[in-house]
Structure formats: structure tokens, C-alpha cells
């Protein structure tokens, strides 16, 4: 099955070969994460991760397409779109905890809360910035089978524009125990887990400066 989505020419042209800067990898992660983050809204959940992808993707990019005139006048409108259409289906809390890794147990409830909030605001800002740069590309999703009892799932996809080499992705999702909703928490691009890459980046800074300082630094990037 095919879906046409908007993908940044500049971002997909970056590669993931050994030696690629961590910052660039995360930027690609953010932009592609948006491409795949096409999950159904809370009001209309689909039954499988694949269906979640298709349903919300149609809704998200349809709204972006219909808001082009407004976006040209008010670019910040994209943040509102991201807040309303995308963030409800991003498991940013789980992702933030995964990034903290072993440091999680050493934090207080207040510290964790502040870190999660900073991470969420950072994602909104970065998602909006990436979405404002897209051009039409094709995304092919592979519909796999997921057991009803599964708590985790993966969805494979391929991004193609007919000119550059295809980019192969694997989306990692987690099912909420209470609501049954599937949400995104990681993306693997050409075999590289970008959540793990971000965790490695933060690991040293938290060990050296502490979670409070890293939280402040992250919050500063949301402005």
C-alpha cells in the first residue's frame, strides 16, 4: 500500500554511514519520525500499528495541505497542528525515560517530570520545523502481522522519490496498557536506532553535568 507524504529533500539526502554526526542523525530521526507518526487519534483508534499509521497520516497531511495559505502567513501555526494531530500519538514520556537510561533511577519525580516536559516541547518545535520544509515523496508501508497480545510492534517502511536510493525504516511502537493505543517511541533508519543514538549523546552530559543542567539546555532549544 502506498501513501504520499511530504519529506524534506535536504534531510533525506543525509546518510547514516559510520561517522555521521549525532546531531544530523537526530534531525533525520525527527523528520522521518513525523513521516511515520501517522497513528489514529484517541477518538478513532485503529486495530493494528499499520492501520494507525495510515489513518493518522491521512489526517495530518491533509490538514497541512489545506492550511498552506495560513502557514505562509503564520509559520508558527505548524506547531499548533503538531500539538493537535501528532503529539497525542507520540509516546514522548516513554522515549524520554529510555533516553535517561540508567540515570532514571537516580532522579526524583520532579526531575523526571521536568525532563519529560522539556523533551516534549523540544519535539514539538523540531517536528514543526521539519514539516515546514517538506516536498512530496512516496512512502511504502509493509503491513505485518501483530498478535492481539503483543505489547511492542515494528512496522517496516521504505521512502522513495525515484531519484535517490531508497531509505529503509523500522518504526518501534508500544501499546498503552490502559487505552490499547499504539504510540511511537523509536525509529531505526538503515539499521541504526536513533533513540539509542540520542541516549548515547545525553549519557555523558548527564553524568558530567547532571539531569537538571541537561533539562535546562533542552528547554532552551524550544524557544
Give a brief description:
By secondary structure, the protein is α+β, with helices and mostly antiparallel strands. It has helices spanning about 10, 20-35, 50-65, 70-75, 75-85, 90-100, 110-130, 195-210, 210-220, and strands at about 1-5, 135-140, 150-160, 165-175, 180-190, 190-195.
Write up what this structure looks like:
With 223 residues, this protein is of the alpha+beta class. It has a single domain (2-220), classed as Nuclear Transport Factor 2, Chain: A (Roll), CATH 3.10.450.710. Helices cover 50% and strands 18% of the residues. The chain has a six-stranded antiparallel β-sheet. Helix 2 packs across helix 7 (109-131), helix 2 crosses helix 8 and helix 3 (49-66) runs antiparallel to helix 5 (77-86). It starts with a strand and ends with a helix. The relative contact order is 0.19.
Amino acid at each position: 500500500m502506498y501513501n504520499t507524504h511530504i519529506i524534506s529533500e535536504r534531510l533525506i539526502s543525509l546518510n547514516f554511514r559510520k561517522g555521521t554526526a549525532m546531531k544530523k542523525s537526530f534531525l533525520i530521526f525527527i523528520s522521518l519520525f513525523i513521516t511515520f507518526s501517522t497513528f489514529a487519534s484517541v477518538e478513532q483508534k485503529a486495530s493494528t500499528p499499520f492501520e494507525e499509521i495510515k489513518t493518522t497520516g491521512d489526517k495530518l497531511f491533509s490538514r497541512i495541505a489545506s492550511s498552506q495559505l495560513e502557514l505562509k502567513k503564520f509559520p508558527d501555526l505548524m506547531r499548533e497542528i503538531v500539538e493537535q494531530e501528532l503529539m497525542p500519538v507520540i509516546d514522548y514520556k516513554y522515549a524520554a525515560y529510555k533516553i535517561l537510561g540508567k540515570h532514571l533511577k537516580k532522579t526524583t519525580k520532579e526531575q523526571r517530570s521536568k525532563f519529560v516536559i522539556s523533551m516534549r516541547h523540544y519535539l514539538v518545535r523540531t517536528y514543526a520545523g521539519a514539516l515546514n520544509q517538506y516536498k512530496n515523496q512516496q512512502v511504502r508501508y509493509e503491513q505485518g502481522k501483530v498478535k492481539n497480545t503483543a505489547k511492542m510492534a515494528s512496522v517496516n517502511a521504505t521512502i522513495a522519490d525515484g531519484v535517490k536510493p531508497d531509505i529503509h525504516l523500522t518504526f518501534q511502537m508500544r501499546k498503552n496498557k490502559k487505552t490499547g493505543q499504539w504510540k511511537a517511541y523509536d525509529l531505526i533508519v538503515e539499521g541504526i536506532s536513533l533513540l539509542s543514538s540520542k541516549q548515547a549523546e545525553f549519557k555523558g552530559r548527564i553524568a558530567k553535568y547532571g539531569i537538571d543542567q541537561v533539562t535546562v539546555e533542552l528547554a532552551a532549544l524550544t524557544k
